[in-house]
């Protein structure tokens, strides 16, 4: 499957395989960073299962991480305008940091 994305420099032809297009379910994200990259781990945590599994890891430059944050903010605003506000989660998880020195965030 090919899709085309518009950007300020023109069009980018993006190939999306059927396997990737199916997506992966994750209900927890952990974020760490070093001085040169951000690491986003998307995790599936299931009730009654003692070990959560990382289902995808995305590594970004700091510049791309900031662009992702801006794009998420814009899309959440559009979603809430169309469908109403998103409830803030009431439960929080605390996991110790990994091999990176920066703070670990959760989503």
Tell me the helix content: 10-25%
- The percentage of residues in β strands lies in 25-35%
Kindly report how far apart the N and C termini lie: 30 Å
- Average pLDDT figure: 85
User: Helix and strand succession?
Assistant: EEHEEEHE
Going across the biggest sheet, name each strand in turn. Answer: 5-4-3-6
Number of strands: 6
Low-confidence stretches: 96-102
Backbone structural class: alpha+beta
Largest sheet: 4 strands, antiparallel
Characterization of this structure:
With 107 residues, the protein is of the alpha+beta class. The chain has a domain at 25-83 and 95-107. It has helices at 18-21, 62-83; strands at residues 2-7, 10-15, 28-33, 38-44, 53-60, 105-106. The protein has a 4-stranded antiparallel β-sheet with strand order 5-4-3-6. Strands 1-2 form a two-stranded antiparallel ribbon. Strand 4 (38-44) and strand 5 form a beta hairpin. It is globular, with a radius of gyration of 16 Å. It starts with a strand and ends with a strand.
Key traits:
107 residues; alpha+beta; four-stranded antiparallel β-sheet; two-stranded antiparallel ribbon; 24% helix; globular
In short:
This protein has helices spanning 18-21, 62-83, and strands at residues 2-7, 10-15, 28-33, 38-44, 53-60, 105-106.
What is the strand and helix layout of this fold?
Blueprint lengths: L1 E6 L2 E6 L2 H4 L6 E6 L4 E7 L8 E8 L1 H22 L21 E2 L1
């Amino acid at each position: 499957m090919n899709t085309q994305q518009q950007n300020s420099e023109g069009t980018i032809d993006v190939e999306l395989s059927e396997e990737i297009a199916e997506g992966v379910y994750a209900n927890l994200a952990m974020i760490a960073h070093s001085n040169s990259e951000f690491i986003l781990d998307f995790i599936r945590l299931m009730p009654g299962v003692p070990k959560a599994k990382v289902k995808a890891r995305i590594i970004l430059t700091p510049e791309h991480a900031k662009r992702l944050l801006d794009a998420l903010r814009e899309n959440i605003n559009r979603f809430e305008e169309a469908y109403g506000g998103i409830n803030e989660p009431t439960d929080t998880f605390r996991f110790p940091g990994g091999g990176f020195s920066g703070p670990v965030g959760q989503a």
